[in-house]
């Protein structure tokens, strides 16, 4: 059976979160790799421009070599000036074009009274060619300068033939019509009335997002990838999708009633039309949007959201502007109550105090702030670390049953903050090797912590003593976020875009997996319900579209993949890398 109804969404998008930085060394290779990929892309495009310029020079040299032969045969030579627009009424343009068309000793014999002009052109045959060459080289040089200056990518010698242009997320994509189709205009038809339905989404975005995995009483795990929020039933292995966002979803939070969900998106562009960031509040049972908050208010995107614990009356939002504006909204009416500039540093998390909705805590790079909202105005107190070394990043925090704040930082420490901002103590000095990426409270006052570099999950008792620990396999990356299922079973989101399910006693198995970097290649099997994908993460996946799982994955030592193909019999895979090298599997 041919694959006709599956719409595939994978987990890597070309947008990176500049503020989402970590001191943990596990994240630095990813960011360094990202910069290397972008630099390599620019180098490849410049190489293409150089090769185009070399080809243009070769053509000019060949043209110069053929001039004497063309003169001998009496054939008119075509120059760049043939591309001048026709203007019958413009005598100056016509005369200029006529002169530029002439090659010495060819046209002059056909014109009356052209003796003197013939002599002049015979005396200067090389000058005109030199002018054409100079103009062409000047044009190439200008375009190369503009590219290097403004990253403008031009294809000077693309494939010839008919083409159509499509826009995907604001990017124009040129699609060439097959060369064996000569009557495309006659074959065009109206858009079909049928619409594709999204059947399954493969992948999860854990590489550069936090606190984006939750478990609902319905048995569904909630997470996002690209523009879609996925509700995946972990036992029935079915999916539902919230699809009202117009660009990449960046953050997620659950209402205290465990039904309503708030999700924030980044800014985008669609056919030169800006897509403004906003927050959607929607019903997870019906997938109906209840409120759209902050459209036109937030800048760049929405980085963090949180509901208040008093029936979820208020919603706190932090955007991705330089000042990371902190705003509080009425979740039912969609009106803004207060707003303040939080900090110029990156902000990783925000939460209301469970016992007082007028108190808000934020954390991020080199700070933990305690905010108080009174009469529409914010006051801020900064956490004082005192005798403890101030970490570079405060990665996460939760509230204990006693009302204390517990923070995890880039030094691997978990600190408790009492009623006073200066009243802190160390829960665990070096609880993790590297950063503490996530904290999760358990029923009865227990605590879970997830590490970055050591990839460990540690369970702490109610009196904050370590009880059990386990380590996530290296191939899945570091622990990005944790979600409690039933007090024993856990869901784990990782930095290599995987979701694991398991427990300390039984271990963990992967239930969601996707690419770690941009996906560029996709190919379907000619007869079976399987398809291939490949991308910049150097991985090739074979997916089972009927059972919605990965059959196998292989990693090749290439810079990045650009496309993949299956043989007509479906027994061979051919993938192409950025270096234009084919790989057969």
UniProtKB/TrEMBL annotation:
Q: Which UniProt keywords apply?
A: Cell cycle, Cell division, Coiled coil, Cytoplasm, Cytoskeleton, Membrane, Microtubule, Mitosis, Repeat, Signal, Transmembrane, Transmembrane helix, WD repeat
Name of the featured protein:
EML-like first beta-propeller domain-containing protein
Q: What family does the database annotate?
A: Belongs to the WD repeat EMAP family.
Q: Which PANTHER family match?
A: ECHINODERM MICROTUBULE-ASSOCIATED PROTEIN-LIKE 3, WD-40 REPEAT PROTEIN
Q: What Gene Ontology terms for biological process does this UniProt record contain?
A: cell division; microtubule cytoskeleton organization
Q: Which residues cross the membrane?
A: 135-157, 213-234
Q: Where in the cell is it found?
A: Cytoplasm, Cytoskeleton, Spindle; Midbody
One matching Pfam family is WD40
Read off the Gene3D superfamilies from this record.
YVTN repeat-like/Quinoprotein amine dehydrogenase
Q: Which residues form a coiled coil?
A: none
* Chain positions of WD repeats: 512-544
Species whose genome carries this gene: Periophthalmus magnuspinnatus
Cellular component per GO, a single term: midbody
Positions of the EML-like first beta-propeller domain: 238-502
Highest rank taxon of the organism: Eukaryota
Signal peptide, first to last residue: 1-18
GO MF assignments? microtubule binding
The annotated region (Disordered) lies at 104-123
